[in-house]
Amino acid sequence: MTALNVLGTPLVPCSYDPLTGYFRDGCCHTDAQDHGTHVVCARMTREFLDFSLAQGNDLITARPDHRFAGLKPGDRWCLCVLRWLEALQAQVAPPVELRSTHIKALERVTLAQLQAHATELSPD
Length: 124
Known about the structure:
By secondary structure, the protein is an alpha+beta fold. Helix content is 19%, strand content 9%. It has one domain (11-124): Phenylalanyl-tRNA Synthetase, Chain B, domain 1 (2-Layer Sandwich), CATH 3.30.56.110.
C-alpha cells in the first residue's frame, strides 16, 4: 500500500541529500517502531536549528558514526511531528513540504497549521 501525504495523495520523497527519514529512504515513512513519528518534511531554518539545539536535539553537529552530516538552513528533513508543533508554539516552525509530509502528522497537527507554513501551494 502506498503511503499518503497530508493532501491525500501519494507521499513524495523529502530529501536524498541529506538522506532523511526514519528508515533513511528519503521519505517521511513511519511505523509503530518510529516512536518520534518523523513525518513532517520541513525545510530547515537557522531559527529552528537553534531552537532544536536548545531543546537538546542537536541537528547541526555531524555524527559520521550515524551517517549524519549535520543539517544547515535550506536542508529538508523529516522532523518529529511533536517537535514541529513545539516549534510552532515557540513561533519558529520551519516551512513544511506538504506533498512530502506523511498523513500521520494530522493525528497531532491540523492541515491548516501545516498549510500556513507550506513551501508550496496546495492543489485545489
